[in-house]
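Whether sequence alone determines local backbone shape is best considered at the level of individual chains. Part of our work consisted of pairing the sequence of a single chain with a tokenised description of its backbone. This step matters because it turns folding into a mapping between discrete strings. For completeness, the protein is quoted in full, as a sequence line and a line of structure tokens:

_____
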Amino acid sequence: MKISRQAWGHREWWKGLPAQCKWKGLRVWRCLTRAKLHTAASLMPWGGVLNLKWKARGFWGDNLRHLHITNLKLVAMYTTAQAFLQGPTGNVARLFCINQAVVAMLPHFTSRNLDLMRRMRRLWRLHDVQLQGAPHQERGQREGGQALPRPNIDD
């Protein structure tokens, strides 16, 4: 089987991780989810909810507004996870995202897009958080029937 240059690059990156890295030697079985993060992003605002209780939201700065929506979704996940899951807690966070490209990338830990790979690696390096991707349920079907928070411009 022929291995692409990109696959070799990914292999070298994984090989170069330190021995104490949280991603080496993970459990084979699925861990219990301790945190559920619902995130959403559009070309202007982003938002996230932890366990349907705590909210984080904001608007993109000029430096991020030009990015593709998939990149913005990953940045929203990173920002939300960074806001809620601080410190070495050993959290297993389940991420809910509408963007199917993001949902498909998270469990496989890979993407052909180098910019997306860089953003995913930043997301993975967040403290001691293990991430599981999951698609959003339909708007009315979410737990508690809650919709994602919409940023209030008056805040």
The mean pLDDT is 71.
